[in-house]
Structure prediction request, 198 residues.
Amino acid sequence: HGQGQPAGLMLANSLIMALCIATGKIAISLLSAFAVVYFRFPGRMLAFWLIFVTLMLPVEVRIIPTFQVMVDLSLTNSMAGLIVPLMASATATLLFRQFFLTIPREYVEAAKVDGAIAALFVILFIYGWNQYLWPLLIINERSLETIVVGLTKMIGTGDSQNEWNIIMATAVMAMLPPVAVVVLMQRWFIKGLTETEK
Prediction:
């Protein structure tokens, strides 16, 4: 599209963002849930409930203070500013905590944890890939634009003529990575979901 970024660059930005968010969320949530379930320390249930309470805060409440922190740290218009604020996850911590509570102590290090990680990775990758509001706020440079933001900017407003063939081709390309992740990890994803229900 006229002054837009190449779709390949936007796809690469989205892929980097989604992979970093998914792996970061899993690493942080896995460690925090493990600590809350298996370590005995004063205030561990308070720590869990403080994490849990953040689930009740809507995005609109958190987004302005988070943006201000990114401005203060000079992380606007950077990949770090795009990724780091989205890494903390109360939802993932809660899911891992519930998973850890279902498995006997002697199986803690068993491969069953792989299924839960794979299932959560698929969900969190798609979460990271579909981010729209945060990248729109934090990124002004076209070279760091993600595919979701780029697609909306391709659709002109007012009297401008839309190049629907390019927009639709880009939309199809934007769907390929999440579909590929789901297809490639399908076996572990299903295994993870069925094992946590037992």
Remarks:
- Residues 113 and 192 are 8 Å apart (CA to CA).
- The mean pLDDT is 86.
